[in-house]
Amino acid sequence: MLTIEKLTKTFGGKTAVDSASISVDRPMMIGIIGRSGAGKSTLLRMLNRLTDHTSGAIRFEGREVTALRGAAKREWQADCAMIFQQFNLVPRMDVVSNVLHGTLNKRSTLATLFNLYPDADIHRAIDILDRLGIAEHAPKRAEALSGGQQQRVAIARALMQDPKIILADEPIASLDPMNAQIVMDALRRIHEEDGRTVIANLHTLDTARRYCDRVIGMLHGRIVFDGTPEQLTTGTARDIYGADASFSEEATSTQIDALTRAKVAPVHA
Ligand SMILES: Nc1ncnc2c1ncn2[C@@H]1O[C@H](COP(=O)(O)OP(=O)(O)OP(=O)(O)O)[C@@H](O)[C@H]1O
Ligand SMILES: [Mg+2]
């Protein structure tokens, strides 16, 4: 289905993703973990063609994604919708219009300019919001919603594209535990009920274990673990995060990063 072969990205002299290979042969929910700077976002952005790769290849159902240009590239970007930590909604626009934005790449400039949406699309947008439990908020401005609700609007906008893959870059990093759970439950349900593949960068190991069928661990741009949550031992997790015995599964990648940086920081007299 989806194959990533020796995918590499360098920025100047720095290698952000280093010869990463992943093969996905059926719809799955995959969690990518690793400390800050490991290359998780760069990998997702290359998948969605937001960032150009330096070498290697991405293939999906027989097509080379990394070779797509123009309309074919935009079509691919609709096939693998992306969700971000900061939701990326239009704050002053109402919820349903934000969701309808998910159909943008399929519409004419003129229709977009005059905010003309077919009735069928509007009904579908409301149905998707309903499925995510937020239909009652449809007429409100996006900025009036809580973070968890806004992230569900972003998921609704992604679903509007009817994507085969949903890419989520730290979808719950800005949310409180309760909203984080609601958003992860929604992603899991979309995977199970629709058979869509979900690939999510997650900032805690805990969440990856609880929700994902497969966990991929990155360190310095390389994939250093790829297996089921059961196969991921505490020792391996410690290696992925470069953490010591004080490592805790609930700790976020940023906390682990700050902790290790504090330990190696020079002590001033
Ligand atoms: N546009 C860019 N220009 C230069 N360097 C970049 C750029 N984007 C990422 N990098 C570098 O590539 C490396 C990987 O970054 P990336 O954002 O993919 O890491 P990450 O695992 O997503 O980290 P975080 O957990 O902090 O989000 C880092 O060293 C980063 O500084
Ligand atoms: Mg990132």
UniProtKB/TrEMBL annotation:
Keywords: ATP-binding, Cell inner membrane, Cell membrane, Membrane, Nucleotide-binding, Translocase, Transport. GO terms for molecular function: ABC-type phosphonate transporter activity; ATP binding; ATP hydrolysis activity. The keyword Ribonucleoprotein does not apply. Pfam families: ABC_tran (PF00005). PROSITE patterns: ABC_TRANSPORTER_1, ABC_TRANSPORTER_2. CDD domains: ABC_PhnC_transporter. One of its GO terms (cellular component) is membrane. Residues 2-245 form the ABC transporter domain. This is Phosphonates import ATP-binding protein PhnC. The lineage of its organism: Bacteria, Pseudomonadati, Pseudomonadota, Alphaproteobacteria, Rhodobacterales. The gene is phnC.
